[in-house]
Amino acid sequence: MWIIVVLISLVALITLFLCIPVELALRARTEEKPKFSLRLIWFFGLFTTELRRPNKKPEQNKLIESENKWGDWLQRLKITYEILQTKGLFKQLRNFIKRIIRQIKVRELTANLKIGLDNPADTGLLFAFIAPLNLAINYFLPNPIKIGASFTGESFITGYLYGAVRLWPIQLAASVIGLVFSMPALRASKKMVLYRWKRKR
Fold it and tell me: Is 83 helix (H, G, I), strand (E, B) or coil?
């Protein structure tokens, strides 16, 4: 009996943790050299961590058989294409992405960018498209997104961008479970297992 109580308590605790929202904050600056940071905030700000790319290890002996690498890469590309051709999988993935996008809540989005191209005429053509789009986006956002043009004849992007989104893991878990246990995903998993089994033989 106590085992059942422990299992129920564990499931309830996991469900409670999944109901706590997670926030992701992206910050980018390009004044001198591009700087990007992605911060994960959980448990209403009690836990925060900076997500960074690991430092690259020094290159060592890169004279590896390139032909084998290309052959392996092409083989992986082929099996990926075959998996994506699984009946119903593309539709399932499309619906999954739509659900994820609907579950993400944008808390803040602000930017102040300045863009210039080598040819001032190209810059003018670019902003003939960007300016109306920028006005339309700012109509729906509480914080302004400013995109300015530079006609100095130099190609660059400078400024900053900040965005913060919130999502609920419990909603993502439901969407992931629905995708993983769908018939198209199970068929695709079968193809992948068979492919790996054939490679090991």
Answer: helix
**pTM of the predicted structure, to 2 decimals:** 0.60
Q: What angle do CA 33, 39, 42 make, to 5 degrees?
A: 175
- List, for residues 119-174, the tens digit of each pLDDT value: 888 888 888 888 888 887 777 777 778 888 888 777 778 888 888 888 888 888 88
Exposed/middle/buried for residue 172 (C-beta within 10 Å: 0-12, 13-18, 19+): middle
Quick one: pLDDT band at residue 63, thresholds 50, 70, 90? very low
Encode burial over 62-84: b for 16+ CB neighbours within 10 A, e otherwise: eeeeeeeeeeeeeeeeebeeebe
Comparing CA positions, the residue from 38, 42, 39, 40 lying closest to residue 19 is 42
Strand partners, 42: 22, 47
Contact by Cβ (8 Å): 157, 149: no
| pLDDT at residue 54 in the model | 53
In angstroms, the CA 168 to CA 173 distance is 9
pLDDT above 50 (res 67): no
Residue ranges in 19-53 assigned as alpha helix (H): none
Ordered by start, the domain boundaries in the chain are 85-104+167-201
